[in-house]
Amino acid sequence: MPIDKNESFTGLILVSGQDRPGITQSLMSTLSEFAVNILDIEQLVIRDRLLLTVLITLDEAHAEAIARDLELLQEKLQLDIAIDFIQTNINEDTSDNLRVVIVGSEIKPVGLSAVASEIARLGGNITAIKRTARNPVIAIEMNLTIPNDSIKKVQEALTSVAINNHIDLAVEPGGSLRRSKRIVILDMDSTLISIECIDEIADLCGKKQDVALITKSAMMGEIDFSQSLIKRVSLLQGLGEEMLFKVIEERLKLNDGTQAWIEACRRNNVTTVLVSGGFDYFADYVKNKLGIDIAISNQLEIKDKRLTGKVLGRIVDDELKAQTVRDFQAKLSIDKSNTIVIGDGANDLKMLAEAQYSIAYHAKPIVQEKARFKLNHSDFKGVLNLFKV
User: How do residues 377-386 score in pLDDT, each as one tens digit?
Assistant: First the structure.
């Protein structure tokens, strides 16, 4: 029978026991005496218990000697060391590699069971599971292989699982593609911050109920955003400019995890852009507070330190938000695959459509329907763990 040129003689080494310094060095030192190549390696430590696996290729004639030396190492280190030799095809298969991340304040077995069940139903195989964060949110990452052309099916199936089990998760390509993000574009009100600024301004002049009703309809997509903004701002006519500062000082709160998310983007040279249908008074404050690169928003007209009830210049509506995404993609020579957009309202829909990583953050139902990813249970710490930059 002819020999398959793609086959190699391999050894799978499993090391387990009490963790301490020097174990990996001792193992590698033992293997370095032979002509072996490392194909794969994985190490895990839980409650000071070590589990280390190493896959090697070797000359079959050396198998007995390697096994004998590993037995001596086992006695020396007082560990359990096992090796399994086999002739196998080491070529990469044609399956797609995916990464599934689940986040939450707590993760229960029923949720993981539902995820694993769907993966198995679609012919996928989980190749690795690890915890990537523990406090203040738990993040569990699964690597899996899936038959070609099944990625969309996995994304759709697991999105349903997430909704039914009250968890947040993301499915994206594994390997280097997962770190291909170059720009993050974010909405502000009810996304980066916990309030709708115009509603809080209105509250200070006794008109919150009227303004909030219009805001809600606009965010649900029931009325045109630009017309709703003009109408809402007109109700603020005569309000003193100092009330804007009062909103910042007393009511504006950053959503949890936003600082960590923006810092992660900056560390990895990912451009951050705040694009808001709100106002520059607040957008500039949030930009400077978080260290965001650029902020684009509406400008309130102020005369004699009082609001005139008008907006200066072109309104930042859904069309301008989408155009902003396209402009930055052209400027950076990137496309949708390098872009993350995060929003919550109907006026974010068009810019969300310009990104492969479109994230509905605690969003209105119409946005949840259209966005590729949905976060309903996690804050921005969840975003940080779900979408590596």
Answer: 999 989 988 8
Share above pLDDT 70 across residues of the chain, in percent, rounded to a whole number:
95
Q: How far apart, in Å, do the first and last CA atoms of the chain sit?
A: 49
Summarize the confidence of residues 289-298 as an average pLDDT: 97
Rounded to two decimals, what is the model's pTM?
Answer: 0.80
Burial class (CB in 10 A: 0-12, 13-18, 19+), 315: middle
Name the residues annotated as catalytic: 187, 189
- The helix/strand/coil state of 98 is strand
CA separation for the pair 133, 246 (Å, rounded): 37
Contact at 8 Å (CB) between 285 and 320?
A: no
User: 7-89 falls under which CATH superfamily?
Assistant: ACT domain (3.30.70.260)
291: left (phi over 0), alpha (psi -120 to 50) or beta: left
CA distances from 41 to 69, 173, 220, 250, 291 (A): 19, 21, 49, 52, 38
pLDDT higher at 227 or 135: 227
Quick one: which H or E segment has residue 300? strand 294-303
Kindly report the number of other CB atoms within 10 A of residue 191's CB atom. 23
Q: What is the mean pLDDT of residues 36-55?
A: 92
Q: Which CATH number fits domain 183-386: 3.30.365.10, 3.40.50.1110, 3.40.50.1000, 3.30.420.10?
A: 3.40.50.1000
